[in-house]
Amino acid sequence: MGTTTSPMPAPRTGPLREADVPASSGAPKKRVKWPLFGLCVLVAIAGALGAASLVSQAGDRVQVLAVARDVPAGHRLEAGDLVTASIAKDPALNPVRASQRQAIVGQRTAVDLRRGSLLTRSQLTAGGGVGDDKQLVGVELKRGQVPRDALAPGDRVLAVTIPAEGEKPTADGQEPSSINATVVSVGPADAAGTVTVNLAVATTDGTTLAAQAAAKQIALVREPRS
């Protein structure tokens, strides 16, 4: 009896079917871009530090002096002229600290003060006032009777007597009379150039200077500052 053999299947020459392709074990892995990730972390840290710094600065407050009501130049400060204000600490601002209130009361102002403004040392006269042995006299001066933009609180000046309008000048060789004074404050010039200067003088000269100032017979000469 003979044996029969089945023919061997011919090798496949066509393309593989989808079922013949091995299936992937999962989704394709994503590559992490580490440089970009690190940059994002640094930006987040910097933002957090900046916010913390702003919060810290906002919480750092100081007690300073502010103006409670309008105060004219040359005024001796009273306790009721000042109030305490709390502000954020700022190196660009230099107001007088509230702890110095007792030393500030009694000093004279060099300029007009407005309600609500912060008080600074530059708004006060040099030396802290005219003293109890001085009198304060306001002198209204026209152009030519006062150095233009050259006077400041604390300057020493001579209040020189000048002839009234229509009067002849003093005789040749005769020096005009003068009074020693210290500038307390200088007001702003008006449209005509007239300016008011507050002067501190000895108690023996106050009435004389006031009378001459009322008669428009005063001119100021600034003494050397050095």
Automatic annotation (TrEMBL):
TM spans (from-to): 34-55
Segments of this protein annotated with the region Disordered: 1-28
Top-level division of the source organism's lineage: Bacteria
Residue ranges constituting the SAF domain according to the UniProt record: 62-125
CDD domains in UniProt: SAF_CpaB_FlgA_like
InterPro entries, sorted: SAF (IPR013974)
Record key words, sorted: Membrane, Transmembrane, Transmembrane helix
Keyword Transmembrane on entry: yes
Protein name: Membrane protein
